[in-house]
């Protein structure tokens, strides 16, 4: 996949390792809190972890500058993938165009994986809205991760 130009200023392309250094220092506060609560990772550690795992990795660009990274990492469970997205505050500049194409990327993930599942911090409103828009099913909040805070498990397929 080359660059998928979604508007004049917004695009999605395959992620590059150097995108981590651009996105990590500017990560949204809600994403920062979530990755600390789940894994005790810094933003750079979380992006590096997701980038190095087998799976699909994309970068969202605004005016050719990375504003978010997303994808799905292969789960050890039979045929599953774990969708993820970490963004900067600048992601709001591409929200509408990205939303228009989000379901296409989720379908691409479902072509690769039999099912998708992961957890999202109950405090991460923007991520929850995006996941619901994409059609994920939400399950009751459970204590999860390094901090054992409430997280929703979300699933699709399988």
Automatic annotation (TrEMBL):
InterPro entries associated with the record: Phage_T7_Gp13
Pfam families (alphabetical): Phage_T7_Gp13
Name of the protein: DUF2833 domain-containing protein
Source species: Anaeroselena agilis
């Amino acid at each position: 996949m080359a660059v998928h130009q979604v508007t004049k200023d917004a695009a999605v392309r395959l992620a590059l390792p150097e995108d981590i250094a651009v996105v990590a220092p500017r990560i949204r506060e809600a994403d920062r809190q979530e990755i600390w609560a789940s894994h005790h990772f810094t933003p750079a550690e979380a992006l590096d972890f997701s980038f190095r795992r087998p799976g699909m990795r994309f970068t969202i660009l605004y005016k050719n500058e990375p504003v978010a990274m997303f994808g799905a990492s292969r789960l050890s469970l039979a045929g599953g993938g774990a969708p993820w997205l970490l963004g900067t505050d600048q992601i709001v500049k591409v929200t509408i165009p990205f939303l228009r194409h989000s379901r296409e990327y989720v379908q691409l993930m479902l072509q690769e994986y039999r099912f998708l599942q992961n957890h999202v911090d109950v405090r991460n409103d923007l991520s929850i809205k995006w996941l619901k828009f994409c059609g994920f099913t939400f399950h009751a909040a459970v204590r999860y991760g390094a901090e054992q805070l409430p997280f929703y498990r979300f699933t699709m397929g399988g």
